[in-house]
Amino acid sequence: MSVVEVNGLSKIYDGGLEALKSVSLRIEKGEILALLGPNGAGKTTLISALCGISSPTSGTAQVGGYDIATQYRKARCLIGLVPQEVALEPFERVINTVRFSRGLFGKARDDALIERILRQLSLWDKRHSRINALSGGMKRRVLIAKALCHEPRVLFLDEPTAGVDVELRRDMWQIVRGLKADGVTIILTTHYIEEAEAIADRVGIINKGELLLVEEKNALMARMGRKTLRIDLQAPVSAVPTTLVGYDLELSPDGTSLSYHYDTSGNGTGITRLLQALAQEGLGLRDIQTTQSSLEEIFVSLVAEGTG
Amino acid sequence: MNFQAVKAIYIYEMKRFFRTLMESLLSPVISTSLYFVVFGAAIGSRIDQVEGVAYGAFIVPGLIMLSVMTQSISNASFAIYFPKFIGTIFELLSAPVNAFEIVLGYVGAAATKSFVIGVIILITARFFVEIHIQHPLAMLAFLTLTCLSFSLFGFIIGIWARDFQQLQLIPLLIITPMVFLGGSFYSISMLPPAWQSISLFNPVVYLISGFRWSFFGTADVAIGLSLLAILGFTALCLSLIWLIFKTGYRIKS
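Structure tokens for the assembled complex are given below, as produced in the milestone run.
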């Protein structure tokens, strides 16, 4: 059974803005789902609706089999939320704010657990520091600690690495992978495509309140991935030989390399024929390499299609 | 019922109080002492007695009410406005708690703080004047109900306020005049008849009168009416809060 089930969830704000258009989604236990989308796409609205911060206009959702509206207590006990904005009480001490979060979720005080979480997030030494004395990255860790301290089974991370340095980003990914290993289901929103590429099992693309697609990351990349074959020539040429025009080759400005675009999902890639044609032309090859288009390019082409 | 959550909110809020203990306690003690110097010693020496009570002692219940009402409102309104302002309210909204538990935690803490302040003012007053409390249980009941109802009212203001100006607006424009004109420093019977009638539309008159009755056994209005007034005010605030959470007014989009 899916741990999160969203059925036809819509959100229309008072001003008439349709932030979510009948979104349906299933998230399996223990997977990492990355929701990709430009700013204002509806990522945060979706998370807010699932976590109880805003009320959906229509549609239903279940978390762990519990309806988020009628069985909100049981549903919310399973959910941890790391918001996009760093919202923390500036004068409070780290350990107090984390203990508060655990209590708020109805759990009895557990110092050993909180120590483990704070150590895992490299916050233990800072536990008695006031929030306003922490760096931006540390504050984000505190938000994660607060979200984890009631042992959620589903964790929503709303742009966890926005404005975070490279080192912390890698740490964050490590933490997310560790949680996945513990069986926690993770839904993260991001507009860093490399983030989705690095840690997600599945990718959902959302734009203008619509979920354009949800697919396994690798399958998505394989399906949509165009590959490019770059052929470096031994001697530069001034133009693409006429016999090769049908291959739609791109000649580099200095005339030393040719690029050939092909689709792996097609029946034939045409590489064999191209290489034979090159040999017949008498062009010597110095090197060949292939590159696969990144999620970013897939994303841009999808969003452009959606708006076009 | 999520008792852990109520406890967590309550303790968290009380910690804020203890963190600023000196400010929290020192200011009511100082302001009470100032009132005694001004009204008790300077002016009071020219006023003999009010309804058979020395003026210095007569103003004690009013002084306590003045502080308790304003402190309840400012404590409770700030407690819920602050999370809204800095954004930490998301945590409350996403937690497995209902409106009743949230209110119990915040209003409970705000009411406790103002109760403590009320008691401290009473103790301070004893250094200046001799006070004998005729109905201690009624006194405690009135004090508790006032702390509670005005904390509830403060909670509503905190939810309603969109900025710090609005947070100050109602206490400044409505509550302070109502408390000052509610007989904190005088008996309604000292006013001209027309003003006496107008005063009866001021709900604070009933609260101060009832509280004063518990001290000295004399009152401007019947004690039953006073009790009804405070219970009615509490009920009104409770229904407003119920409405706020039912509609998500200014807390949930």
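The first strand of chain B starts at residue 49 and ends at 50. The interface with chain A takes residues 2, 4-5, 7-9, 11-12, 15, 19, 82-83, 86-88, 90-98, 248, 252-253 of chain B (CB under 8 Å). Further analysis is deferred to the final report.
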